[in-house]
Amino acid sequence: MRISIVGLGLIGGSMALDLKASGFATEVIGVDISESHCQQALQRNLVDRILPIEQAIDQSELIILAMSVHHIIKTLPQVLDQVESQVVIDVGSTKQLISEAVKDHPKRANYLGTHPMAGTEFSGPQAALKNLFRNKVVIFCDVQESSKSAILIANEVYDCLRMPIVKMTSRQHDKHVAYVSHISHISSFALALTVLKKEKDEQHILNLASGGFDSTVRLAKSNPEMWSSIFVQNSENAIEVLDNYVTQLKKLRKAIESRDLHLLNSIIMEANKIKKIL
Amino acid sequence: MRISIVGLGLIGGSMALDLKASGFATEVIGVDISESHCQQALQRNLVDRILPIEQAIDQSELIILAMSVHHIIKTLPQVLDQVESQVVIDVGSTKQLISEAVKDHPKRANYLGTHPMAGTEFSGPQAALKNLFRNKVVIFCDVQESSKSAILIANEVYDCLRMPIVKMTSRQHDKHVAYVSHISHISSFALALTVLKKEKDEQHILNLASGGFDSTVRLAKSNPEMWSSIFVQNSENAIEVLDNYVTQLKKLRKAIESRDLHLLNSIIMEANKIKKIL
Fold it and tell me: A224–B195: do the CB atoms touch at under 8 Å?
């Protein structure tokens, strides 16, 4: 199948690698507003050709939108305006506003919203990796709104990437990812800011950063454009989980301030229950 | 040199492995209040013999205290009461209160406070690892209070473990580790609690946990006894950094709530500066 990938970053580039390697994509056409991304994607053989989006749509059976959600929400309706029988999927990290943006579109059924839950803190075509998605979960949203052929093709795509599929509404999706992904990033950005601010006064504080710090702050390296648009589109859920998070921090603060060994012990034992799922 | 290690957990056990492998320790005597820890340490050959602490002190040239800081602060003065020429080091994650507890002890100079900045989220003798410490930093505190021979022996110990040494006061130490270690753990415990609380309502929320969540929540598996006693002993610094952290979270909250793409972008770009040191 000839496919177009719009947005040649970490996710789009990594999908290109696996879809070509599996033979599912006989040709990958790349689309990106960044000239340097296009050049890098060609050099790394992520894509076979670069085309403007209109021509790419005309020449493909499947179009994958892999830009920031901010760009997906603007581009998806335009893509649907142009498609005939082509299938369109997006891989954005928010779903509700994107889904609403095409709710009444005559070609709505050609589209399926998906979210492959994989990534790293790096971005751009140079960050693309083989097997990035393997054994991670992909979420399909609002499948009842999509045609059988759209669902069939999306199934094939994520079979090639070896991703188990979970189905839910885009509303459920946005709530869940706020808990399992967005809050981790908020927490990590805030942690980086806290320590960087202190560093101005305390020069060698960061020489000491060891294992624990690395892993909690790793996500703070994540792409600003991607994450600012996620937070804008999932504002309400992100605020809800952030408020719950601050409530838990206050509970810990109170126990630390009162130097209550027994209470701290029981709070941490409660947090330890995360072992059962990780 | 014959050494005693009091506390046969992750840190004590891992030190035993490296100090024996390097030949520095000709014999390692193990001390632990937990009978099962003693048995596991013997089975894994972390230690050669188990003795009660009084006998272990008498038969060693070096005593390493590797328990929770809560136990170190009670045990260190008793150990110093008994030593003659032996050197005593501790490897606790807080230093100021421990240092104060022996400030006027006649054998104060036999003791040096150290903190090897390495670890994992696992605990107990089974968690002990070879080369856990290699190329991580160790902090020596208040070296002017220790005898030349205590410093010399501590230097040899951490040479064997391949750890570069940083020197500071115990007061500076406690402030710095609050920023580069303790807040990461507080953040991670709170994150685990937030998500576990939500899970009660939303059954399959955790099936979705992907890379980002794993790495930020990993530390929430850490040992309750160890961390509750760290927070009690470093309460003031932990509260200071926690308050700074919540200030940064509020800044992010405001930008997310106002859906201000530009502001979010600039905050995340600021957080990205952590790249320069990680």
Answer: no
> pLDDT tens, A169-179?
999 999 989 98
Residue of B71, B228, B241, B247 best to disrupt the A interface, most CBs of A under 10 A: B228
**Chain A partners within 8 Å of B277 (Cβ):** 206, 209
DSSP state of A50: E
Instruction: Tell me the chain A residues in contact with residue B97 when contact means C-beta distances shorter than 8 Å.
Output: none
Interface check A23 vs B, CB under 8 A: no
- Greatest alpha-carbon pair distance for chain A in Å reads 67
Amino acid letter for position B162? R
What distance in Å separates the CA atoms of residue B181 and residue B194, rounded to the nearest whole number? 20
Nearest Cα residue to A102 out of A73, A131, A138, A123: A73
Please give the Cα distance from A153 to A99 (Å, whole number).
19
Give the pLDDT band of residue B276 (cuts 50, 70, 90).
confident
pLDDT tens figures, A90-114: 999 999 999 999 999 999 999 999 9
Q: What is the nearest CA distance from A36 to chain B, expressed in angstroms? A: 21
3-state secondary structure of A62: strand
Q: List pLDDT tens digits, range B8-49.
A: 999 999 999 999 999 999 999 999 999 999 999 999 999 999
CATH topology of domain B2-168: Rossmann fold (3.40.50)
For the residues B113-121, what does the mean pLDDT come to? 93
CB contact under 8 A, B249 and A224: no
pLDDT top residue among A206 and A88 = A88
Q: Does pLDDT of B211 surpass 60? A: no
Least confident of A167-171, A185-189, B211-215: B211-215
By C-alpha distance, which of B58, B63, B56 is closest to B12? B63
What percent of chain A has pLDDT above 90? 84
Rounded Cα–Cα distance for residues B249 and B263 (Å): 14
CATH of A2-170, one of 2.40.40.20, 3.40.50.800, 3.40.50.720, 3.40.630.10: 3.40.50.720
CATH architecture of A173-276: Orthogonal Bundle (1.10)
Residues 52-81 of A with CB under 8 A from B: 70
Domain boundaries, chain A: 2-170, 173-276
d(CA B202, CA A217): 27
Strands (DSSP E) found in chain B: 2-6, 27-31, 49-50, 62-65, 87-90, 111-116, 138-141, 165-168
- Interatomic CA distance for residues B126 and B46, integer angstroms: 10
Residue of B nearest to A137 (CA): B208
DSSP-assigned beta bridge partners for residue A28:
A3
